[in-house]
């Protein structure tokens, strides 16, 4: 098949075009339209319901930034829960922290995991780690029903459409709060503050209602819809402003470091005004 342009629609007036050199797989799972394509600029790319989730070349930014700020803020993140994250990138980063004893991951769509094993082995290798357990289940139901308690919960969800809608809801955060230990922390990918302002503001409102402390931080994921990308932390006790003096940075990270940690929490005025 010859090359073609894939259009990723962001609003009625804004779209991004990607040159596709090869389609590796296209399928309709019970939850979403899934495709894995080879792109000219960004290498292999996973697309769910028309939205790019990860690309081979820049996935490290999102995965390092969703994981390390919260994992370095919690003094002993031994037991971690990941909701979503079916490609395995978040799991890979969590397992780099030696103090971690157990990671449970709850992904609703087994086909995302299977496609990652087939096409993104550098991410999916984490599934074979002895500290990792994978549950194919709805994360909303899991936090509602589980008796387990975690130090850290990481919500690596897709955009608030289809099965991910309720991952941005108040009940989910209330159940996540109860699933955390007394000094636990949650971090959620809270979308673009420009293109998904409603979702971003909903996360702010609900996490503020449920947790004593809430913090927003930013990064730039090059291949997500343009501009800053937000993450939001809800915390029962700890505050993440600065990299802790008593911890050592993991070797070999490509994005996150001590200075990036502090800088990520500096918010421009237009975002401060939204909060
Ligand atoms: N980095 C990505 C982004 O922001 O574009 C997110 C990547 S990850 C592939 C998102 C995952 O969340 C998907 O695999 C999707 O199946 C999963 N997911 C969506 N709703 C879910 C739910 N209710 N419970 C568990 N996993 C869910």
From TrEMBL:
UniProt keywords, alphabetically: Polyamine biosynthesis, Spermidine biosynthesis, Transferase
Binding residues for S-methyl-5'-thioadenosine: 32, 107, 138-139, 163
Residues binding spermidine: 63, 87, 156-159
Superkingdom: Bacteria
Any one GO biological process: spermidine biosynthetic process
Enzyme class per UniProt: transferase
Signal peptide (residue range): none
Active site: 156
Pfam families named among the record's database cross-references: Spermine_synt_N (PF17284), Spermine_synth (PF01564)
Domain PABS: from-to ranges: 3-236
Classification via NCBIfam families: PRK00811.1, speE
Quaternary structure note: Homodimer or homotetramer.
Family recorded in the similarity comment: Belongs to the spermidine/spermine synthase family.
Protein role: Catalyzes the irreversible transfer of a propylamine group from the amino donor S-adenosylmethioninamine (decarboxy-AdoMet) to putrescine (1,4-diaminobutane) to yield spermidine.
Protein name (Swiss-Prot/TrEMBL): Polyamine aminopropyltransferase
Gene expressing this chain: speE
């Amino acid at each position: 098949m010859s090359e073609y342009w894939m259009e990723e629609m962001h609003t009625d007036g804004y779209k991004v075009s990607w040159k596709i050199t090869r389609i590796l797989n296209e399928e309709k799972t019970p939850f979403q339209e899934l495709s894995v394509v080879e792109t000219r600029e960004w290498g292999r790319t996973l697309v769910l319901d028309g939205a790019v989730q990860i690309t081979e070349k820049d996935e490290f930014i999102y995965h390092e930034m969703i994981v390390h700020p919260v994992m370095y803020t919690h003094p002993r993140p031994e037991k971690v829960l990941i909701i979503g994250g079916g490609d395995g990138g978040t799991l890979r980063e969590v397992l780099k922290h030696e103090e971690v004893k157990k990671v449970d991951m709850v992904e609703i769509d087994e086909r995302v995991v299977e496609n990652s094993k087939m096409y993104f082995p550098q991410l999916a290798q984490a599934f074979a780690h002895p500290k990792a357990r994978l549950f194919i289940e709805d994360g909303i139901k899991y936090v509602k029903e589980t008796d387990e308690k975690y130090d850290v919960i990481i919500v690596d969800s897709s955009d608030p459409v289809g099965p991910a809608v309720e991952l941005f809801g108040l009940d989910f955060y209330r159940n996540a709060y109860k699933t955390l230990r007394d000094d636990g922390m949650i971090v959620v990918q809270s979308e673009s503050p420009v293109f998904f302002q409603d979702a971003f503001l909903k996360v702010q409102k609900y996490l503020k209602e449920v947790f004593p402390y809430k913090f927003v931080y930013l990064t730039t994921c090059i291949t997500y819809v343009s501009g800053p990308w937000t993450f939001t932390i809800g915390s029962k006790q700890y505050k993440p402003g600065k990299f802790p003096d008593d911890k050592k940075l993991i070797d070999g990270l490509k994005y996150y470091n001590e200075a990036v940690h502090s800088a990520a929490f500096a918010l421009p005025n237009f975002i401060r005004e939204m909060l």
